[in-house]
Amino acid sequence: MSERPAYLRPYQEAVDAHGPRFEALLWNRPETQLVRFAALVSMLDLVGATLADMGCGRADLAVYLRDQGVGYAGYVGVEGVQELCEASEKRAASEGLERCVFRRLDFVADAEAFPALVREDAVQAFVFSGSLNTLEQPGAMAVLQRAWDALGSTPGGVLAFNFLSDRHGDPSRTDENTGPAIRFDTLAMLDWAMTQTPLVRFRQDYLGGHDAAITMLRPA
Predict the structure, then answer these.
(1) Number of compact structural domains in the chain
(2) 3-state SS class at 203
(3) Contacting residues for 21 by C-beta, under 8 A, at least 6 apart
(4) What are the start-end ranges of the H helices in 72-196?
(5) Contact 126, 158 (CB under 8 A)
(6) Rounded to whole angstroms, how far apart are CA atoms 20 and 88?
(7) Strands 100-104 and 183-184, how do they pair?
(8) Cβ distance 72 to 50 under 8 Å?
């Protein structure tokens, strides 16, 4: 088996240690995950849209959308770790999640992943919740650029993502260890988004300002 890329290795090691359970997602606790979902979804209109959950883990976002009554047209779970992708498929079947399909793809390494999802699955919204955390910021921005570019022919296309913010409080703190997650330069992320479209939403008013969320909309 070829060596896992660095950004997937923490997840694979967690799966090897715990199985495809919540612990393998590298979230602190379920409550934190739900707060991030709520913040991101509050900035989106997914009713009637087909979304791709990039780094879907155990399809927790699909469950959250179902429980909140969000009437999406389709959900495509994209996951690079085989065990998690299989767990998502089983969960969707056992819990009756409707209009869900799953793709095992490494969206960082596969340059054609985003155009293929738009072309083959009619994806209108790309959503990243926590799945950029193990990337260095330049790599994360390159991924987001490819996702945004793939929506070029999709009026009303949406790109939504969250990340650990470097504007979380006292800038003199040097003892923080967030590994394997990496904090991003928040203003640089926001500036990049606003160079792509003026239709940008930003939130950092949850989880004590440690997390930030950005959504970008292509003009209809």
Answers:
(1) 1
(2) strand
(3) 58
(4) 82-95, 113-121, 137-150, 186-196
(5) yes
(6) 9
(7) unpaired
(8) yes
- 209-219 pLDDT per residue, tens: 989 999 999 98
DSSP3 helix / strand / coil % (the chain, rounded to 5): 40, 20, 40
> Residues 137-164: pLDDT tens digits?
999 999 999 999 999 978 889 999 999 9
Q: Which of 25, 8, 28 is nearest to 61 (CA)?
A: 25
pTM for this structure? 0.89
The answer to whether residues 40 and 129 touch, using CB atoms and an 8 Å cutoff, is yes
What CATH number is associated with residue 163? 3.40.50.150
Q: Is 26 a residue whose pLDDT tops 70?
A: no
Determine, yes or no, domain membership for 1. Answer: no
| Residue 67, in any domain of the structure | yes
Q: Tell me the three state secondary structure of residue 210.
A: coil
Q: Are 71 and 158 in contact (CB under 8 A)?
A: no
